Amino acid sequence: MVSTLPVSLEDIRAAARRIAGRVVETPMVLSASLAEIAGVPVWLKLEHHQTTGSFKLRGATNAVLSLSPAERARGVVAASTGNHGRALAHAAKAQGAVATICMSRLVPENKVAEIRRLGADVRIVGRSQDEAQQEVDRLVREEGLMMIPPFDHPDVVAGQGTLGLEIADALPELTTVLVPLSGGGLAAGVAAAVKGVNPKTKVIGLSMERGAAMKASLDAGGPVQVEEMRSLADSLGGGIGLDNRVTFAMCRELLDGVVLLTETEIAAGMRHAYACEGEVVEGAGAVGIAALLAGKIRTGGPVVAILSGRNVDMEQHRRVINGEDVAFAEDTA
Questions:
Q1: DSSP label of 23
Q2: Beta bridge partners of 313
Q3: Which end of the chain is less enclosed by CB atoms within 10 A, N or C?
Q4: Gap between the Cα atoms of 179 and 162, Å rounded
Q5: Distance of alpha carbon 20 from alpha carbon 38, whole angstroms
């Protein structure tokens, strides 16, 4: 089944060989507090310990390394809600290439500043990922830059899938993986990897209630546009692209379900990560913990929750930890 999809297990194994030594093989730790709540062993995949603070470095690095030297010399470009831009800026710089990152005004300033620090050319365009993508398309068309999208690209998906290989190798007996779901690059890659190793493993996508584009698209039977709204899980914002070629088909085929979370539940996940696990994670990185705390996951065996990113504005994090930010997030579109 997996081999007929745009990205195969062998593609992911090849990506793992390609990016070896250029990304961190992040740890998995057993959470006693969450295991007590869930009634089964709960492991946390600490991908927020990745070099650029999120899983995105895997896909960006694999995609940049898959380009020819001539293609890299033209420069790379992408639209991003922040973490892909940071990862692509880092991966491009490591290979001596120039990165241009297009973002909407909804992207938090801390993520914009870090991308600039890495030497990328930053373009702020509009109030949605779709508007930022229009600028990317113009730069590809008029200036010849090489587009490396944040999720809908086989090399990006294969790179993200290396995280799934690490999980499957570390915990062969796992029954369920909880994976943050936005455009589907991480979910598709992880699902292809873990199901390629063990087809019985369940993979559940997790997103916020406010503008979950992949969930709306799966429900509609094809890619649809959704309104982007502010959320504590800002990294999960944005559409999947009406011309989606890779991740929609893979998520439709491989995901065993999608769970949506309120802003209050996401905030609770961030607080638990900090208070009980000693980890600072952004809202998107906390959705696995949030789903377990909310009782929205039922599994009969070991479960892995991917903590996908840490690139949160620390003032916002302070407000969430103190219980000050939930009402703002719920009420503000």
A1: S
A2: none
A3: C
A4: 14
A5: 34
The CA distance from 157 to 168, in Å, is 17
Sequence-separated (6 or more) residues with CB below 8 Å from residue 100: 75, 76, 77, 78, 120, 121, 122, 123, 139, 145
User: In the sheet where 121-124 sits, what is the strand order?
Assistant: 121-124, 99-103, 76-79, 146-147
Angle between helical axes of 213-220 and 247-254 (0-180°, round to 10): 70
Task: Supply the pLDDT for residue 230.
Answer: 87
Q: Can you give the pLDDT at residue 331?
A: 44
Task: Say what the pLDDT of residue 333 is.
Answer: 36
Residue 306 neighbours by CB distance under 10 Å = 28
pLDDT along the chain (333 residues), means of 10: 80 98 98 97 98 97 98 96 94 97 91 94 90 94 96 97 98 97 97 97 97 97 92 91 96 98 97 98 98 96 97 94 67 41
176-180 and 303-306 beta bridge pairing: parallel
Give me 262's structure tokens. 């309120």
Chain-centre distance for alpha carbon 73: 27
What span, in angstroms and rounded, lies between the C-alpha atoms of 242 and 298? 32
Tokens for 200? Answer: 């019985």
Contact 178, 206 (CB under 8 A): yes
Residue 229: its pLDDT value, please? 87
Phi, psi angle pair for 30, to nearest 5°? -85, 130
Spatial CA neighbour of 307 closest among 275, 269, 276: 269
What sign does the CA torsion over 65, 196, 241, 179 have?
negative
